[in-house]
Design brief:
The structure is a homotrimer. Among the domains of chain A are: 87 residues, Udp-n-acetylmuramoylalanyl-d-glutamate--2,6- Diaminopimelate Ligase, Chain: A, domain 1, CATH 3.40.1390; 126 residues, UDP N-Acetylglucosamine Acyltransferase, domain 1. Helix content of chain A is 13%, strand content 28%. Chain A contains four helices and 37 strands. Chain A has a ten-stranded parallel sheet with strand order 8-11-14-17-22-25-28-31-34-36, with no helix packed on it. The longest helix of chain A is centred in the C-terminal third of the chain and has 15 residues. The first copy, chain A, is flat. Strand 37 of chain B pairs antiparallel with strand 36 of chain C, so a sheet runs across the interface.
Chain lengths: 313, 313, 313
């Protein structure tokens, strides 16, 4: 933890404008619900007015148009949630591991590590791997040979980069393995969640562009491309050779078929299975609504009859 | 393996009542289908009467009301399946690892381990972690700093506790990371399956209460609470800040949206996506029924027309 | 990398027939789209005629009936994709790790390793495990005690074999653990993708037969049987005691209920939840079609009314 900082010191570092006591000393961030004395919180949406009214936070970050919603000392900023994120970074700079290679990690001699890289306990870094400056690999990350990771990457525990893609060809009832000779190329400022897997390419590389954020337990198949600044929530699967645009957001447990193209600025809802290319920006959803079990059973039976073209009896 | 025990010795330890030869010697448990001489099986449901009639087990555990369904030596118990579980524990006490810290594990000096804890090969235990008495971590579990695990925990291989939650804020087309400064608190008697991940909280803690049972490859987002004695099957994803009650059961591959509340004693069916709070106990389901592929294709096309308000042609 | 080989040398090793210059020297394989001088590609489907026309590959593998589709030097083979796989193996023989046990791996004294086995960094091999000849375990694979792996297995990083199945019995609002005393038996020529988990059996064994191919992040519950030469794509979950036939293909993110039987030669589409036994070969699908979000919302509301038996208004 760093700090404390006054509201005035915060805006001198991060911009924005103080309304109220600029000398107020802040020690930590907190949620509207749980923040207490010495803590600063934020309001990202005026719907949370009731929580704002009840908060015991010492100060609040909010948008200029919401200035009048509170009498607390406050910082006005255009993107209060992003501003809050930066304030939290200010107070909590040292969440990452110490830099250097943990003695229990296994790093190939031919791997090239940038400056100020942190390799956690039990990591395994293969031949010919490159890792950019200021990257942090938490414990037990595995990177297969000949993959590259950009600068300022954060790879969480259990991540596997560069395992073979699922390439098999049928012959007389058996499967013949197709060597996976491509690699994985990951850009700068990428974060990858715990136990996520990104397969190496069959012939060409699998590519994750700069600024991509992947949550936990995501599977990225061989030869996928994920465009810059796309964010994907947990448990999503992306089949081989899918080409996903820039600035997309994909909800949790979504599934993307292989060999399809998704345009920039597409949003896919959680739990949605995308089976064909999406060439127009927008939000796409395909969730079968749940119901109380007996009602679902009757409804599903009726829909099955309707789907078969029978009249509803 | 321990034993053998006579039926009489079993009921003197675990309760229940013997019908038939109390001196019959039992050496192991088995399924109705595969048990042989010296083995005891169980009948949990009178629907399995045919298997009971055909079994070659030496003895059977069943409910008092089913006493007459077999002439075999038997133990009558109110909850035959739970009773069988305890009998199996009697015969198979030593499935867990030896206690102590494996020399290849990496345990921070500031971590506090209780009595009789077992830390498997390749585990990584961060600063300030506490682990309660009699807990067993199988190989390659990672616990990030400042998380706590209760007593008698069982954490299977590949579990990751306390990785950063997926907290990012948009700003001008890029993502700003929100430091995840909460921890994970796990109660007593919790079991967590292989490769399951539980993220640390953004500001407050992620909480898993006592007696929770999690299967493999489950993802628990930041600031989730899972109430006591809830059981969740494999491949389920729980998004951030979901608040799940006590004594719930959640089927495999279910998905729970973030920021919703699920009451105590709710049952969610496998493969169901829960998109809003469930404040009433009961069973909830939302599965799109499968069909033979061509029939599904015709049916899906017809349902799409109906969903658009067109008459069925 | 091995080679180069002439087209003539390739067919003398792998069969097929050369049309054109049999002395043409090939150095590597490539896709129709990206292959260049010295590279051989393949045409598996005459639909890709346009890519074939545009390719800069030096030679192509294709089916005898497609011989006239190109004027390039070519190899005619009955199964061009499988033939291509073998050609790629010829040029890329050494993708696997070196044989031997990495010094950081932890192998129980009672484990039995076959000839030419490769055990990667950080693997943990339990008591009584057997691993067949020529098998390769990439880094950080965990095999619990008393499981067996066949010959020529490929297990990718993060795989966990033999963790406890999810066996719990309810008693007075709490869960009693059922010891999982079966093992896992895996046949010859099985490949298992990164972070996939296969649980040990409750009483009897979990069985993966020869030639099965499993992609990443698959969960296989206790007492499942997967028949020979079945291939399963990523993120699929298979619940306990499911019995899956031989020569099946199961798409990504499918979910198979427990205690059901799937015949040989069944194909399950990606994202489909199979809730009952499939005793007839064929393809089965159950995907709820996605739509643009607002259209989906209206359609889902209308379907809910129809499912409740209300007239469409």
């Amino acid at each position: 933890m760093a700090g404390p900082f006054t509201l005035g010191e915060i805006v001198s570092r991060l911009g924005g404008r103080v309304v109220g006591d600029a000398g107020l000393l802040i020690r930590q961030v907190g949620s509207l619900e749980h923040a207490g004395p010495g803590q600063i919180s934020f309001l990202s949406n005026s719907k949370h007015g009731a929580e704002l009214a009840a908060t015991r936070a010492a100060a609040v970050i909010l948008a200029p148009e919401n200035e009048k919603l509170t009498a607390l000392p406050r910082i006005l900023a255009e993107a209060p949630y992003a501003y809050f994120a930066k304030v939290s970074q200010l107070f909590n700079p040292a969440v990452a591991q110490a830099s250097g290679v943990h003695p229990s990690a296994v790093v190939a001699n031919s791997a090239k590590l940038g400056k100020n890289v942190s390799i956690g306990a039990g990591c395994v870094i293969g031949d010919g791997v490159t890792i950019g400056d200021d990257s942090c690999l938490y414990p037990r990350v595995v990177i297969y040979p000949n993959c590259s990771i950009g600068k300022r990457a954060i790879l969480h525990a259990g991540v596997v980069i560069g395992a073979d893609g699922f390439g098999i060809a049928p012959e007389k009832g058996r499967w013949v393995k197709i060597p996976q000779i491509g690699g994985v190329r990951i850009g700068d400022d990428v974060e990858i969640g715990a136990n996520t897997t990104i397969d190496r390419g069959a012939l060409d590389d699998t590519v994750i562009e700069e600024g991509v954020k992947l949550d936990n337990q995501i599977q990225v198949g061989h030869n996928v491309r994920i465009g810059a600044h796309t964010a994907i929530a947990a448990c999503t699967g992306i089949a081989g050779s899918a080409d996903i645009g820039r600035h997309c957001t994909i909800g949790g447990a979504a599934m993307i078929h292989g060999h399809i193209k998704i345009a920039d600025h597409v949003q896919v809802s959680a739990g949605t299975l995308i089976t064909r290319s999406l060439l127009t920006p927008g939000t796409y959803t395909g969730i079968y609504p749940f119901d109380e079990h007996e009602a679902w059973k009757r409804g599903a039976a009726r829909l099955r009859r309707l789907a078969k073209g029978k009249k509803d009896g």
